[in-house]
Structure prediction request, 119 residues.
Amino acid sequence: MVLLIFFIGISTSFILHGDETLHGGIVVHATNGYNIEKVKGIKRIFFYLLSNDEKTTIRDKKLTGTVEFILNNGAKEKHNLVLSKDEQALKFIFKEKKKIKAYIVHIQYKKKIITTKFN
Prediction:
């Protein structure tokens, strides 16, 4: 039993912190057979919808989404995401610095809601 947990931990750790992601971010498994990659900059954060095998970025003019920030003080803020000009990512631009504990991301694609959480 302990051995099984050890191997599962290695597998999950590699997926969350792998160096060979498509856009250099952190990839987390999401619902409905997709993955979401988070790439954080100084004032912007990008969320890329990826195929199940993590090899393809889903591009679509109709991608929409929201992000819910769970702040260190326990407060929650929900914001709409904006589609980037190249239609590869949904983005959020920070107007002020926030101390974020976790992100809950919802992306709508082909009438499906794809959801994941980044800690």
Summary: The first strand starts at residue 26 and ends at 29. The domain at 2-118 is CATH 2.60.40 (Immunoglobulin-like). The chain has one domain: 2-118. The chain has a mean pLDDT of 85.
